TrEMBL record:
<keyword id="KW-0408">Iron</keyword>
<dbReference type="Pfam" id="PF00111">
    <property type="entry name" value="Fer2"/>
</dbReference>
<keyword id="KW-0001">2Fe-2S</keyword>
<dbReference type="GO" id="GO:0051537">
    <property type="term" value="F:2 iron, 2 sulfur cluster binding"/>
</dbReference>
<dbReference type="InterPro" id="IPR002888">
    <property type="entry name" value="2Fe-2S-bd"/>
</dbReference>
<dbReference type="GO" id="GO:0046872">
    <property type="term" value="F:metal ion binding"/>
</dbReference>
<dbReference type="InterPro" id="IPR001041">
    <property type="entry name" value="2Fe-2S_ferredoxin-type"/>
</dbReference>
<dbReference type="Pfam" id="PF01799">
    <property type="entry name" value="Fer2_2"/>
</dbReference>
<feature type="domain" description="2Fe-2S ferredoxin-type">
    <location>
        <begin position="2"/>
        <end position="78"/>
    </location>
</feature>
<keyword id="KW-0411">Iron-sulfur</keyword>
<dbReference type="InterPro" id="IPR051452">
    <property type="entry name" value="Diverse_Oxidoreductases"/>
</dbReference>
<dbReference type="InterPro" id="IPR012675">
    <property type="entry name" value="Beta-grasp_dom_sf"/>
</dbReference>
<dbReference type="InterPro" id="IPR036884">
    <property type="entry name" value="2Fe-2S-bd_dom_sf"/>
</dbReference>
<keyword id="KW-0560">Oxidoreductase</keyword>
<dbReference type="GO" id="GO:0016491">
    <property type="term" value="F:oxidoreductase activity"/>
</dbReference>
<dbReference type="InterPro" id="IPR036010">
    <property type="entry name" value="2Fe-2S_ferredoxin-like_sf"/>
</dbReference>
<protein>
    <submittedName>
        <fullName>Carbon monoxide dehydrogenase small chain</fullName>
        <ecNumber>1.2.99.2</ecNumber>
    </submittedName>
</protein>
Length: 161
């Protein structure tokens, strides 16, 4: 076991990790931030997306020891300073871009990366960018609406069910 230290959501965090400990496991078990979900363990579903040094990565494909000293942002770090939902999180709530919620942390983190690089994406660009994130519940329609709304673009309201 080796001590691994990272700045996670603006706070220095240290926890032990074996050489084979994945970043997703280190975040969930080592520092008790459980917003990062582990879905497939094969880097296919995108539920574990976090930002490492400002870049979106799948936390199930990175060893914690490899990024010792890095800056990591998780879905918990997307909230406002007062604990209220951040813009992207609020858009996912407002536009029903979630159902079971399992894919939501990865979708939110991928959306943040997309909007950092492309602040006003088209619907086609959103769909293309989110191809690495699997959702089994929503059919993606409302996720795309949420991303468009988070980018500040006009989106038709979601009909009440």
């Amino acid at each position: 076991m080796t001590k691994v230290t990272m700045t996670v959501n603006g706070k220095t965090r240290t926890a032990e990790a074996e050489g084979r400990t994945l970043l997703a496991e280190w975040l969930r078990e080592g520092v008790r931030l459980t917003g990062t979900h582990i879905g497939c363990d094969t880097s296919q579903c995108g539920a574990c997306v976090v930002h490492v040094n400002g870049e979106a990565v799948k936390a199930c494909s990175v060893l914690a020891q490899e990024i010792d000293g890095a800056e990591v942002t998780t879905v918990e770090g997307m909230a406002n300073a007062d604990g209220s939902l951040g813009v992207i999180q609020q858009a996912f709530q407002d536009y029903h871009g979630l159902q079971c919620g399992f894919c939501t942390p990865g979708m939110v983190m991928s959306t943040a990366a997309l909007l950092k690089d492309n602040p006003q994406p088209t619907e086609a660009e959103v769909r293309h960018y989110l191809e690495g994130n699997i959702c089994r519940c929503t059919g993606y329609h409302n996720i795309v609406k949420a991303v468009m709304a988070a980018s500040g673009q006009q989106v038709a309201p979601v009909a009440a069910e």
